[in-house]
Amino acid sequence: MGSRAVTKPLYKRAVLWVPLISVLVLALVAIAICGLLVVKQALAVRDSLNKALPLVSTIQEHVTSGDIEAAKSSVADLEKYTQQARSDTGGFLWDIGESVPVLGNSLVAVRTTAEVADALATKVVKPLSQFSLDDLKPVDGRIDVDQISALGDTVTGALETTTASQKRLDSLDRDGLVDQITSAMDKIEPKLNEVADLLGAAKQATDVLPAALGADGPRNYLMLFQNNAESRGTGGNPASILLVNVTDGAITIADQASSRDFSNGGPELITDIDDETLKLYGDKIGRYMMDMTLTPNFPTTADIATAWWGTYSDTPIDGVVSLDPVALSYLLKATGPIELETGDTLTPDNAVSLLLNETYFRYEDPDVQDLFFAAAAGSIFDALTQGDLDIKELISQLTIVIDQGRLLYSSSDEAENALFADTRVAGTLPESNDETNVAGVYINDTTGSKMDYYMDVAIGAEQSCAADATSTATTVTLSNVLDPAKADDLPGYIQGPYYDHGRIATDVVLYAPVGQTITDVMVNGKSKKPNYQGEHLGRNVAKISVTTDPGQQTVISYTLSGKTDADAAPLEFWHTPMVRETPVEVARCK
Questions:
Q1: How far is CA 400 from CA 328, 395, 404, in A?
Q2: Total Cβ atoms within 10 A of residue 543
Q3: Coil, helix or strand for 110?
Q4: 97-104: long-range contacts (C-beta < 8 A, 24 or more apart)?
Q5: Number of separate helices (H) and strands (E) present in the chain
Q6: How far apart, in whole angstroms, are the C-alpha atoms of residue 199 and residue 212?
Q7: Spatial distance between the Cα atoms of 408 and 296, rounded to a whole number of angstroms
Q8: Is 432-587 a CATH 2.30.40 domain?
Q9: Is 430 helix (H, G, I), strand (E, B) or coil?
Q10: CB-hemisphere CA count at 13 Å for 239?
Q11: Nearest one of 243, 251, 246, 245 to 215, comparing CA atoms
Q12: Which end of the chain offers a freer environment for a tag, N or C, measured as fewer CB atoms within 10 Å?
């Protein structure tokens, strides 16, 4: 019987596997090459974005300095990099790669990040960079409200793009993303959030500013100048007031008054004031015009100021603004030196001493003092509204002024008040500890003089934390820096009529953070019962009356007691802005 050839199954024949393996190897090589090409594209995207991101800050610097041509050049570079990044996330291979498991998720994230960056460059940064801050400067006493409206339209479009971009990044699946991709996203997102916050605030401002500047009809504002040489809660004795009219952006001084133009000390309150405020500060807050700034709650002061003005003029008031001479000295860095009608030259270095101290040595007659203050206020106002302002420096100095609580504003329009809500400009203590955990220290002079020019204040606090409670040991140090040998040489208007020469009498009003209580009050190491303790503005409050002799210090120590919310923001102190800066040191819980 002949032998029969044994036939191998097809799946075991080399004739099948050799070509299949070859095809598979070639396919794997092709996939690897494609993968390398896609990776190369992704790395190119990363490099482009790394070059683009620093340009955002550069463009911001150009815009704030008024160098629009430099801003345009940097915008062109920014667009070049972001468009290149976006271009590198396209093509046949990339599209295929996005459908591959694991790899695809990373490529989608890279493409989305590149598209977001390009949208920011072309629809946010570029249109905003076309505006110069110099366009917002007053020219011949007028601010161009049409320019502000146009800026508002641009801001609105930019905010819409930014918000949409935030949503796109938030929707990405980050599981399995490589570090290089998450690193790029981590650089984009903070910029995106920062831009969104700035645009949100800018939109609020551009929404209300045209009307506030009289685009829809004349506006009248009271401007209080608080004299820090006679301290009050939000600054000082508001003895000088300007009435400012704004019509279609044109700003003028319509009237001017001093404390002696009002009938102080009448038997009735000038307006309704809540019982808590009256218990803490006494009815003088509503019977004497110069005491309306005792409270740290500026809306209360604004209501009282409006009522006082109503006894002097029938002009309706749309808002109240407050500044002090220290703030004006900062703003002089933007206006340059100002020549006064008296022949004096106001500079950042001499404005505070001249307005808050030297004037009383020079002029004994209070009426002459008022005329000097009025002339100075008018000259500074003219410089701010008509002069050649350094707008970048103005913004920088205004930031300092606001941080120190020296610029306050309250409007009769709630939409305008909402713009400044929860900021220092509003002049209101926060209602909760969620975002800003604030304790307050406010200085009210009771000397009846201008002695607080010589008063320095320092605040220190050390938190002690336990599992179930938090307490803070706090000190407020009042320093009378007057040389005792010079006390008898002070003019009577500075010394005041009630105390030994050089002595400063003060009501120190302490506000606890929301939910805490002021306990264990001591003055110079001795236990002290507060002159008043109760509730005000939703907080526990204590008032301590002290006197401080020349060259001496008064140290008030107390404890902020009680459990605080675990999610509360870090403790900080808001305080009366004094003639000189008030150092604050807080040793916080870790």
A1: 11, 9, 6
A2: 19
A3: helix
A4: 97/34, 97/35, 97/38, 102/176, 103/35, 103/38
A5: 16, 18
A6: 19
A7: 11
A8: no
A9: coil
A10: 21
A11: 246
A12: N
Per DSSP, which regions of 402-516 are E strands? 408-411, 437-445, 455-465, 470-480, 504-511
Percent with pLDDT over 90 in the chain: 48
d(CA 456, CA 191): 40
State the Cα–Cα distance between residues 386 and 384, nearest whole angstrom: 6
Domain 219-403 has CATH 3.40.630: yes
Number of other residues whose CB lies within 10 A of the CB of residue 207:
17
Task: Find, among 249, 243, 241, 242, the residue nearest to 218 by Cα.
Answer: 249
Q: Domain boundaries in the chain?
A: 21-210, 219-403, 432-587
What letter represents residue 57's amino acid? S
- Provide the token pair at 203: 């939109």
> What is the longest distance spanned by two Cα atoms in the chain?
145
In angstroms, how far is CA 319 from the centroid of its own chain? 20
Selection from 508, 496, 500 nearest residue 451 by Cα: 496
Q: Which of 488, 475, 490 is CA-nearest to residue 557?
A: 475
**Cα torsion 99, 105, 110, 112: sign:** positive
Residue 4: φ, ψ to 5°: -115, 130
Q: Which of 579, 329, 544, 351 is nearest to 454 (CA)?
A: 579
**φ/ψ (deg, to 5) at 138:** -65, 140
Write the pLDDT tens digit of every residue in 7-42: 555 444 454 445 444 444 444 444 444 444 445 566
Measured between alpha carbons, how far is 425 from 442 in angstroms, rounded to an integer? 16
**Number of other residues whose CB lies within 10 A of the CB of residue 536:** 22
**pLDDT tens-digit profile of 218-271?**
999 999 999 999 999 999 999 889 999 999 999 999 999 988 899 999 999 999
Q: Would you put residue 214 in left (φ > 0), alpha (ψ -120 to 50) or beta? A: left
Q: Would strands 526-527 and 455-465 be described as parallel, antiparallel, or unpaired?
A: unpaired
